[in-house]
Specification:
Layout (H helix, E strand, L loop, with lengths): L6 H7 L27 E8 L3 H12 L4 E4 L7 H5 L4 E4 L2 H14 L6 H11 L2 H6 L7 E6 L11 E6 L9 H16 L4 E2 L2 E9 L2 E9 L2 E13 L8 H7 L16 H8 L15 E2 L8 E2 L7 E4 L17 H4 L15 E4 L1 H6 L10 H4 L10 H6 L8 H7 L4 H11 L1
Parallel strand pairs: 1-2, 1-9, 2-6
Antiparallel strand pairs: 3-5, 4-5, 7-8, 8-9, 10-11, 12-13
Helix pairs in contact: 1-5, 2-7, 4-5, 14-15
Length: about 425
């Protein structure tokens, strides 16, 4: 891949991969890099990462006539796609979707490329047909619109999900990725190599020639005759990158533990710049001892409030699930602390009996891979100490080391 390739031309070249949000970082090769004495494997297109993005890129490249191979560092594919709720954002109106997305850039005071944005919307509008082409006899349905509903034209974008067939239990992200897997492995016979972790891009002058990949503990040189696609996910399981690129502290993880920033480091080593590294989708969650990842809070009853470490309510509890980080990420510049990290959700007996405080949550590694079953009345989590119970507000404050005076006044005002 030439270092002169633009974001725009790359998107147009691999436009159909928009359904999986695949994008390879721009690379600038370093002259004089040593090349392998021999290539252990080769293909036209080498894809690192087998989630929705890697699968979309593989399908698109294969259909364009390329010889493709996928390398996945985990024992099985899916990544965050498989442990998500399986939702896909697809515009229903070109002009309204473009206008909405432009306003999100303006809201975030973010760099915007109108031509790239237009190309994205044009290709994303084809995503429904792309999704339905993955496997036979599938049905999709709309379950919502774009998240920032206070921004005009948010309903110009729909959220779609595969419908679970009768008699099956597969849902959400697994439904989505199973269809990807069928399209990749059954229909197109694209080879997938597991336990294969990308280490470094192999470059010469202005070209990416391939990648060093550790396969079952052995380092191999893989030649890419046309392109390397980095689809290796995010970096939420890399503490150093979280520390360098995000505000706040004590982040827990919701998604796939394989997201350790490998592709980001590979692209950086080849000369890539970074963009929007501090953008987060981050709900409020909690930790159950023994699980690798956290679970997101999703209260079923309105009788609850969020309070900070001083026992004071600080936010409208209706805040958008994906942007909760911005509700808690406040630095106390006098006492030098984050008074809302951690924070507490306070609820009553009515809410406890209403159902699990993670009720309705369908995404996350803990639910979809670790198979954690939250008790229907939250009693098991009280026994485990995940939920702290007390007969009075004062005692609850004491158990959680917050001001009893403040918490009593907060609850009184709320009531």
């Amino acid at each position: 891949m030439s270092k002169l390739i633009s974001k725009r031309s790359f998107l147009k070249g691999f436009a159909a991969a928009a359904a999986g949000a695949a994008a390879a970082p721009l690379v600038h090769a370093k002259p004089g890099d040593p090349l392998p004495q021999k290539w252990d494997r080769e293909a036209d297109v080498v894809i690192l990462g087998y989630g929705g993005a890697g699968a979309s890129a593989a399908i698109t490249a294969k259909d364009a006539g390329a010889d493709v191979v996928i390398f996945e560092k985990c024992p099985q594919g899916g990544g965050n796609t498989a442990v998500s709720s399986g939702g896909m954002m697809i515009p229903n109106n070109r002009e309204r979707a473009i206008e909405y997305l432009r306003k999100t850039y303006d809201f975030a005071n973010s760099e915007k490329d109108d031509e790239l944005l237009t190309a994205f919307v044009d290709e994303a509008m084809k995503s429904k047909d792309f999704l339905l082409s993955l496997a036979p006899d599938q049905k999709v349905y709309i379950y919502g619109h774009a998240g920032f509903q206070s921004i005009p034209e948010s309903d110009g974008i729909d959220k779609w999900r595969f419908r679970t067939p009768k008699g099956q239990k597969t849902r959400g992200g697994d439904m989505l990725f199973n269809n990807y897997r069928y399209a990749v492995e059954t229909v197109r016979k694209i080879p997938v190599v597991y336990n294969a972790r990308g280490l470094e891009l192999i470059t010469r002058n202005d070209e990416v020639l391939g990648a060093w990949i550790e396969i079952d503990g052995k380092k191999e040189a893989v030649k890419a005759k046309k392109a390397v696609v980095l689809a290796t996910g995010g970096y939420e399981f890399d503490d150093k990158m979280l520390s360098n690129h995000t505000m706040g502290q004590k982040f827990h993880r919701l998604g796939h533990p394989g997201n350790t920033g490998d592709g980001v480091r590979m692209a950086q080593a080849a000369g890539a710049d970074l963009w929007h590294m501090n953008a987060l989708s981050c709900p409020l969650g909690l930790v159950v001892p023994g699980l690798k990842t956290a679970l997101q809070i999703n209260m079923l009853a309105p009788s609850h409030i969020y309070v900070d470490q001083d026992g004071k309510r600080f936010v409208n509890e209706k805040m958008d699930n994906h942007t909760c980080i911005y509700g808690v990420n406040l630095l106390d510049a006098v006492k030098h602390r984050y008074p809302r990290i951690p924070c507490f959700v306070i609820f009553d007996e009515e809410a406890r009996k209403r159902g699990p405080i993670i009720g309705g949550a369908t995404s996350g590694y803990a639910l979809n891979r670790e198979d954690y079953k939250w008790s229907k009345d939250n009693s098991a989590e009280i026994e485990k100490g995940v939920i702290v119970s007390a007969p009075t507000i004062e005692e609850l404050a004491k158990k959680n080391n917050v001001s009893a005076e403040n918490l009593v006044e907060t609850v009184k005002r709320w009531n």
